[in-house]
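Please fill in the sequence for the structure shown.

STRUCTURE ENCODING:
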């Protein structure tokens, strides 16, 4: 909805995943998935827990070597080695945050720049003389990224002392430090409150406007449908459907895939929660307790900000 959506064209694609399959013993976590991201696009990847979304990301970024299929970035096939994938121009954040907890905010971003400086990762971690020199050159850019993500005032704080939402932002800043052409975000708003989620939405739009294409996994449907030019739905490892927000929302199979696990941030969720809250409040003086001892009436949905961070990190 943010830019005119064009049909997928592998010609000139930033990312082209073709027939990606990942098996773990007898389990096929990802099955023959094709996915393309065009320049300037924000593409969403959704699906119930365990659908294979993170596994697919791991195949794209070289953490896993796909059992079958190929992954290309700007027309060149990627080697399944994380550092080579980063060097090629693909950066990611993790569903389970991975920061250097005892380094400062600024240092975390500087480490993220190691693929773009002559100094390597070890030099960055060990702070050799070469790193100190490169650091000065990198610091300006790192500070720009902290401004961009709204973390500049926290530059000297230890990463582990940041609130959860800011740790997620720092992961994005660190990923951007490698100057990627494609950014992969795995549940960037998990554990965020609605304000932080909106800020992240604007941040992703700004990232795209600066020329980095984005592929994002997220459970918050409002976030996904507001943001994405195209959305692909993964169910049990297979791509069920792919299209604009309108097309995906209108597909009954997508709704069916989620049934039984009402998803946070479903369209209308906030309104429903507000109505529930108002009704509960109005009925308060004589509200009967549910007979089975549960605290929520059937059908009561949890507001997105009341959900704990997704714990199925992998
Ligand atoms: N390294 C692994 N070894 C074995 N099974 C795995 C591994 N990684 C993921 N899986 C399995 O693959 C399936 C998809 O998981 P995942 O990609 O984390 O789903 P999602 O991110 O969509 O919630 C799950 O059944 C999960 O248990
Ligand atoms: Mg996942």
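FILLED IN BY: designer on duty
SEQUENCE:
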């Amino acid at each position: 909805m943010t830019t005119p959506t064009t049909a997928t064209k592998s010609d000139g694609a930033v990312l082209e995943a073709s027939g990606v399959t990942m098996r773990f013993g007898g389990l096929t976590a990802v099955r023959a998935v094709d996915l393309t991201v065009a320049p300037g696009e924000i593409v969403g990847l959704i699906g119930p827990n365990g659908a294979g979304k993170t596994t697919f990301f791991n195949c794209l970024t070289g953490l896993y070597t796909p059992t079958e299929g190929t992954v290309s970035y700007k027309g060149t096939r990627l080697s399944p080695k994380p550092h080579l994938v980063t060097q090629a121009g693909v950066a990611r954040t993790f569903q389970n945050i991975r920061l250097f907890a005892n380094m400062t905010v600024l240092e975390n971003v500087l480490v993220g720049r190691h693929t773009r400086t002559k100094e390597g990762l070890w030099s960055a971690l060990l702070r050799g003389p070469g790193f100190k020199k490169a650091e000065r050159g990198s610091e300006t850019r790192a500070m720009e990224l902290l401004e961009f993500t709204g973390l500049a005032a926290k530059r000297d704080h230890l990463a582990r002392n940041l609130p959860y939402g800011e740790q997620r932002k720092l992961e994005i800043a660190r990923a951007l430090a490698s100057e990627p052409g494609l950014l992969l975000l795995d549940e960037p708003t998990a554990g965020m409150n609605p304000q932080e989620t909106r800020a992240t939405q604007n941040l992703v739009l700004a990232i795209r406007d600066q020329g980095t294409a984005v592929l994002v996994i997220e459970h918050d449907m409002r976030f996904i449908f507001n943001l994405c030019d195209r959305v692909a739905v993964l169910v049990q490892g297979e791509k069920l459907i792919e299209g604009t927000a309108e097309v995906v929302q209108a597909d009954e199979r997508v709704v069916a895939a989620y049934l039984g696990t009402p998803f946070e941030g479903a369209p209308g969720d906030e309104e429903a929660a507000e109505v529930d809250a108002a009704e509960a409040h109005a009925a308060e003086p004589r509200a009967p307790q549910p007979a089975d001892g549960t605290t929520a009436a059937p059908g009561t949905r949890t507001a997105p900000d009341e959900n704990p961070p997704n714990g199925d990190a992998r």
